[in-house]
Specification:
Layout lengths: L28 E4 L5 E7 L7 E5 L7 E4 L5 E3 L4 E6 L5 E3 L4 E10 L4 E8 L1 H21 L5
Antiparallel strand pairs: 1-2, 1-5, 2-3, 3-4, 6-8, 7-8, 8-9
Length: 146
Protein backbone atom coordinates (compact mmCIF):
# COMPACT_ATOMS: atom_id res chain seq x y z
CA UNK A 1 0.00 0.00 0.00
CA UNK A 2 1.29 3.46 -0.80
CA UNK A 3 2.19 5.81 2.02
CA UNK A 4 -0.52 8.29 2.99
CA UNK A 5 0.71 11.77 2.24
CA UNK A 6 -0.73 15.19 1.62
CA UNK A 7 1.10 15.40 -1.68
CA UNK A 8 0.08 12.76 -4.20
CA UNK A 9 1.92 11.60 -7.26
CA UNK A 10 1.45 13.36 -10.60
CA UNK A 11 -1.32 12.19 -12.91
CA UNK A 12 -0.65 9.35 -15.32
CA UNK A 13 1.17 10.57 -18.39
CA UNK A 14 2.63 13.55 -16.54
CA UNK A 15 6.26 14.09 -17.35
CA UNK A 16 8.78 14.38 -14.56
CA UNK A 17 11.28 17.17 -14.72
CA UNK A 18 14.94 16.31 -15.17
CA UNK A 19 15.69 17.92 -11.80
CA UNK A 20 13.36 15.59 -9.87
CA UNK A 21 14.31 11.93 -10.42
CA UNK A 22 11.89 9.33 -9.11
CA UNK A 23 13.50 7.30 -6.32
CA UNK A 24 10.98 4.61 -5.35
CA UNK A 25 11.11 3.00 -1.92
CA UNK A 26 10.39 -0.58 -0.91
CA UNK A 27 6.72 -1.36 -1.47
CA UNK A 28 6.10 1.51 -3.90
CA UNK A 29 4.41 0.87 -7.19
CA UNK A 30 6.44 1.90 -10.21
CA UNK A 31 5.91 1.82 -13.95
CA UNK A 32 8.98 0.67 -15.88
CA UNK A 33 9.35 2.35 -19.28
CA UNK A 34 11.97 -0.23 -20.33
CA UNK A 35 9.27 -2.89 -19.85
CA UNK A 36 6.65 -1.01 -21.92
CA UNK A 37 5.14 0.64 -18.84
CA UNK A 38 4.79 -2.59 -16.89
CA UNK A 39 3.79 -1.91 -13.28
CA UNK A 40 5.59 -3.58 -10.40
CA UNK A 41 6.06 -3.42 -6.66
CA UNK A 42 9.59 -2.41 -5.65
CA UNK A 43 10.95 -5.39 -3.71
CA UNK A 44 14.62 -4.30 -3.61
CA UNK A 45 16.35 -0.94 -3.95
CA UNK A 46 19.95 -0.28 -5.00
CA UNK A 47 22.29 -0.94 -2.10
CA UNK A 48 25.59 -2.61 -1.27
CA UNK A 49 23.93 -5.99 -1.91
CA UNK A 50 21.84 -4.99 -4.96
CA UNK A 51 23.09 -2.96 -7.92
CA UNK A 52 19.59 -2.25 -9.26
CA UNK A 53 15.91 -1.91 -8.43
CA UNK A 54 13.98 -5.18 -8.37
CA UNK A 55 10.28 -5.20 -9.15
CA UNK A 56 7.58 -7.87 -9.05
CA UNK A 57 4.05 -7.74 -10.53
CA UNK A 58 1.53 -6.65 -7.83
CA UNK A 59 -0.19 -10.06 -7.80
CA UNK A 60 3.09 -11.98 -7.81
CA UNK A 61 5.11 -13.40 -10.67
CA UNK A 62 8.53 -13.11 -12.24
CA UNK A 63 10.78 -10.36 -10.87
CA UNK A 64 12.71 -8.03 -13.13
CA UNK A 65 15.36 -5.41 -12.54
CA UNK A 66 15.62 -1.73 -13.45
CA UNK A 67 18.73 0.49 -13.54
CA UNK A 68 19.94 1.82 -10.19
CA UNK A 69 19.52 5.37 -11.51
CA UNK A 70 15.76 4.80 -11.65
CA UNK A 71 15.82 6.47 -15.09
CA UNK A 72 13.25 4.05 -16.54
CA UNK A 73 10.93 4.12 -13.51
CA UNK A 74 7.91 6.39 -13.10
CA UNK A 75 5.49 6.72 -10.18
CA UNK A 76 2.06 5.13 -10.36
CA UNK A 77 -0.55 7.57 -9.06
CA UNK A 78 -2.93 6.49 -6.31
CA UNK A 79 -6.49 6.47 -7.72
CA UNK A 80 -8.95 9.13 -6.54
CA UNK A 81 -12.14 7.90 -4.87
CA UNK A 82 -13.95 11.21 -4.49
CA UNK A 83 -13.60 14.97 -3.96
CA UNK A 84 -15.30 16.97 -1.21
CA UNK A 85 -15.54 20.73 -0.69
CA UNK A 86 -13.58 22.30 2.15
CA UNK A 87 -15.24 24.69 4.60
CA UNK A 88 -13.42 27.71 3.23
CA UNK A 89 -14.48 30.76 1.30
CA UNK A 90 -14.83 30.50 -2.45
CA UNK A 91 -12.69 33.02 -4.31
CA UNK A 92 -13.85 34.84 -7.44
CA UNK A 93 -11.22 36.36 -9.71
CA UNK A 94 -12.93 39.05 -11.78
CA UNK A 95 -9.97 39.33 -14.19
CA UNK A 96 -10.11 35.69 -15.25
CA UNK A 97 -13.84 35.47 -14.52
CA UNK A 98 -13.32 32.24 -12.62
CA UNK A 99 -14.35 30.98 -9.21
CA UNK A 100 -12.03 28.83 -7.12
CA UNK A 101 -13.61 26.35 -4.70
CA UNK A 102 -11.18 24.73 -2.23
CA UNK A 103 -11.63 20.94 -2.20
CA UNK A 104 -10.15 17.84 -0.58
CA UNK A 105 -9.19 15.02 -2.94
CA UNK A 106 -9.56 11.58 -1.33
CA UNK A 107 -7.36 8.74 -2.59
CA UNK A 108 -7.91 4.99 -2.62
CA UNK A 109 -5.15 4.38 -0.07
CA UNK A 110 -6.76 6.74 2.47
CA UNK A 111 -4.45 9.64 1.62
CA UNK A 112 -5.86 13.10 0.98
CA UNK A 113 -4.62 16.18 -0.81
CA UNK A 114 -6.00 19.70 -1.00
CA UNK A 115 -6.75 21.19 -4.37
CA UNK A 116 -8.95 23.80 -6.02
CA UNK A 117 -11.95 23.33 -8.32
CA UNK A 118 -11.87 26.10 -10.94
CA UNK A 119 -15.27 27.10 -12.32
CA UNK A 120 -16.16 29.37 -15.22
CA UNK A 121 -19.30 31.57 -14.95
CA UNK A 122 -21.53 29.14 -16.89
CA UNK A 123 -20.42 26.30 -14.62
CA UNK A 124 -21.18 28.37 -11.51
CA UNK A 125 -24.69 29.02 -12.82
CA UNK A 126 -25.24 25.36 -13.72
CA UNK A 127 -24.08 24.12 -10.30
CA UNK A 128 -26.20 26.74 -8.54
CA UNK A 129 -29.29 25.40 -10.34
CA UNK A 130 -28.31 21.81 -9.54
CA UNK A 131 -27.64 22.60 -5.87
CA UNK A 132 -30.96 24.46 -5.58
CA UNK A 133 -32.63 21.34 -6.98
CA UNK A 134 -30.87 19.11 -4.42
CA UNK A 135 -31.90 21.45 -1.57
CA UNK A 136 -35.52 21.36 -2.76
CA UNK A 137 -35.46 17.53 -2.91
CA UNK A 138 -34.05 17.44 0.62
CA UNK A 139 -36.86 19.74 1.86
CA UNK A 140 -39.49 17.56 0.19
CA UNK A 141 -38.02 14.40 1.75
CA UNK A 142 -38.32 16.06 5.18
CA UNK A 143 -41.98 16.93 4.57
CA UNK A 144 -41.27 20.50 3.55
CA UNK A 145 -39.15 21.27 6.62
CA UNK A 146 -35.93 23.28 6.03
Amino acid sequence: MAEQTSKQLPAQGAELSAGAPFRPRLGDLASDLAEKGRIGVVVAVPSASSASYHLRPPGGGREWSAPSSGATLRPVPVPVTHVSPLKRDVIYDHRSQQAALPVMVHHEDGGMSESVLILEPAQVELYRIQLDHIIEQRHQARGGKP
